[in-house]
Write a structure and sequence with these properties.
six-stranded mixed sheet; 28% strand; 679 residues; Integrin beta-1; alpha+beta; extended
Length: 679
């Protein structure tokens, strides 16, 4: 309506209905969840899956979700995870082949058949591969002497060492355990100079060269076996290598080709790569460096550390125990959220107790066949510029390839915006577009209903029409002048009204939170001189009694009190802001009311002049002190700058000459042998 703001239409549904808005005209869109892809978790045992030839195994449900999000309103959906029996496993064994690992190699050669036999108890689909590393083949990591490059161990018995290398991919992932034992059996030890090895170079290539390694979208395990420290980003400068590691695959004929031209990767780079590739790493290391690799557990996404014996005879036990530890814990993670979006998790693990916060992301001690669930809540920010494609978030358990794709569709428009009426007659005969019950005016038209021409109206004219008189403010300072009419403001549950917004209900007292106790009353103003101990008729319907003379000025409720019987104690506020208490009693006549006014008023106390003066004086003193301190600082800075400039000028004018230096001594010394004779 004219005189109303557009924002006045926005409130809770209950309030709008109470104001009289028809329910079919309300726009109150709610969020919703749509399951786009919801393949159920695999429930059949492995024997039935073999009979039905079910190769695809599902541990995570759902797979794709579309969320319609109202800004500020969280939308929640459930994600289920079940550790399925007989889930496929890929394991890649990455071994340090420096000279100190010579006694470990024989046990690794026997690992293929033993590990295949052990993993059959967990899965029927198991594959394993093998790779080896030493270090970069430049100084100071290795000796570049020709004989040392050929045989870095300087021995011939029982066999010479092979030339050093950075990383060599030996065997792609295979289900043939005999082939693993055969190819690993052919490996020989190499050597280098410094103690740390180039393991991070090999780890990066084993993770990113998915096609060469043969990684599948199944459980990916990488066993990293060494007895030494590792080089990391920045160490390459020792060998003159400054180009950062690009995190790409550089294998040619199964050999890493960028070892001498790219620096080592950083620990954070490796951790992020393992997270993206869904690789769970098992560090099988000796006791001397266990503490170092334990520190990586807080950085790497899914990581286990096992203490390797001196000759690696316990490597099989380490792999089995680490696999059980890694797969018994599920930790949910998500990709980066769009700006302003928020996400939270609530987990229900085996004990069915809800956990929130960071604990809501994980469940531990999960056995094969156990199912857990996570309630994921996503909240959208206030609407901004709509993007062409809906934002996308990926949720998945750490170390697993399965994921939940979440498409985010914010609700930023009302359904009524689709039914716009251009040139609507409701907007001053077609001067605007009717959209969701309000007018969007054409260029040059203003007003709630586009009723004003911007060119014809001016600020001066509108200002004149919206003033009560020449000295008053526009709309009494309580509204805006639109098309020569005042549009009054609202303040919470109170409002200004009147032609010039000169009236308000702010001054009316409330009873139980309601203006005038919820009743509409008419007030009469009494401003009479009350005689002592006399009864004065103020109006035909009122009689006032006082003990002595005084001036009384306050409002009384009109004939609405006349039918009341008995004595009533009342309170009003006079023109000076003081509270006046009085008694109302119905007179003998039908329209007669007696008012007994108390002599003493309750007025607000005067301000404490002494305290105010003291506070102001102290503030002035503090302010003056701060100003003087800043002034001193400014003068000191100016003086210091001048002195420094003077010093620089003198420094530039000074010229050094060795002939002028009194303490200069030549670096050339001439000695003459007195016994020397020319021949």
């Amino acid at each position: 309506k004219v005189g109303q703001h557009v924002w006045e239409r926005c409130d809770t549904a209950r309030t709008l209905l109470r104001r009289g808005c028809p329910s079919d005209h309300l726009e109150d869109p709610r969020g919703s969840t749509v399951l786009l892809k919801n393949r159920k978790i695999t429930l059949q045992p492995k024997e039935q899956r073999r009979q039905r030839q079910l190769r695809q195994v599902t541990q995570l449900q759902p797979q794709s979700v579309l969320l319609h999000l109202r800004p500020g309103e969280p939308q929640t959906f459930e994600v289920k995870f079940k550790r399925v029996e007989d889930y496929p496993i890929d394991l890649y064994y990455l071994m340090d082949l420096s000279f100190s690992m010579e006694d470990d190699l024989p046990n690794v050669k026997k690992l293929g058949a033993d590990l295949m036999e052990e993993m059959r108890n967990m899965t029927s689909d198991f594959r394993m591969g093998f790779g080896a590393f030493v270090d970069k083949t430049v100084m100071p990591y290795i000796s570049t002497a020709k004989d040392m490059l050929r045989n870095p161990c300087k021995r011939t018995e029982p066999f010479p060492c092979i030339p050093p290398f950075t990383y060599h991919h030996v065997l792609s992932l295979t289900a043939n355990g005999s082939l693993f034992s055969e190819l690993v059996g052919r490996q020989r030890i190499s050597g280098n100079l410094d103690l740390p090895e180039g393991g991070l170079d090999a780890l990066m290539q084993a993770a990113v060269c998915e096609e060469q390694i043969g990684w599948r979208n199944v459980t990916r395990l990488l066993v990293f076996s060494t007895d030494a420290d590792f080089h990391f980003a920045g160490d390459g400068k020792l060998g003159g290598i400054v180009l950062p590691n690009d995190g790409k695959c550089h294998l040619h004929k199964n050999v890493y080709t960028k070892g001498n031209s790219q620096d080592y990767p950083s620990v954070g780079h490796i951790a992020e790569t393992l997270r993206q590739k869904n690789i769970q790493i098992i560090f099988a290391v000796t006791e001397e460096v266990t503490h170092l690799y334990e520190g990586l557990r807080s950085i790497f996404p899914k990581c286990a550390v096992g203490m390797l014996s001196n000759n690696s005879h316990n490597i099989l036990q380490i792999i089995v125990e680490a696999y059980n530890a890694l797969t018994s814990e599920v930790v949910m993670e998500n990709s980066k959220l769009p700006p302003g979006y928020r996400i939270s998790y609530t987990s229900r693990c085996k004990d069915h107790e809800p956990r929130r916060g960071e604990q809501g992301r994980k469940c531990s001690n999960i056995s094969i066949g156990d199912e857990v669930s996570f309630n994921v809540s996503i909240t959208a920010p206030p609407c901004a510029t709509a993007s062409q494609r809906p934002p996308r978030v990926v949720i998945k358990p750490q170390g697993y390839s399965e994921e939940v794709e979440v498409l985010l569709s914010p609700i930023c428009e009302c359904s009524c915006q689709k039914d716009v009426v251009p040139h609507s007659p409701s907007c001053s005969h077609g001067n605007g577009t009717l959209e969701c019950g309000t007018c969007r005016c054409k260029e040059g038209r203003v007003g709630t209903l586009c009723e004003c021409d911007r060119a014809e109206s001016s600020a001066a004219v509108e200002s004149y029409l919206c003033r009560h008189n020449n000295v008053s403010e526009v709309c009494s300072g309580r509204g805006e002048c639109v098309c020569g009419k005042c549009v009054c403001r609202k303040k919470h549950s109170h409002a200004y009204y009147g032609k010039f917004c000169e009236c308000s209900d702010f001054s009316c007292d409330q009873y139980k939170g309601l203006q005038c106790g919820g009743n509409t009353l008419v007030f009469l103003r009494i401003n009479r001189f009350v005689q002592a101990e006399g009864t004065v008729t103020v109006a035909p319907a009122f009689v006032m009694t006082a003990s002595k003379a005084r001036l009384v000025s306050f409002a009384l409720p009109a004939p609405a009190c006349a039918p009341c019987t008995g004595l009533h104690r009342c309170m009003e506020v006079d023109a000076e802001g003081c509270r006046v208490y009085f008694l109302l009693r119905t007179g003998q006549k039908e329209d007669s009311v007696h008012v007994h006014v108390a002599l003493e008023r309750e007025c607000p106390s005067d301000p404490n002049v002494i305290l105010i003066t003291a506070v102001l004086s102290a503030s002035v003193v503090v302010l003056l002190g701060v100003v003087l301190l800043l002034l001193w600082k400014l003068l000191t800075s100016i003086h210091d700058r001048r002195e420094f400039a003077h010093f620089q000028r003198e420094l530039e004018q000074r010229r050094w000459n060795r002939r002028d230096n009194p303490i200069y001594k030549s670096a050339i010394t001439t000695t003459v042998n007195p016994k020397y004779k020319e021949q």
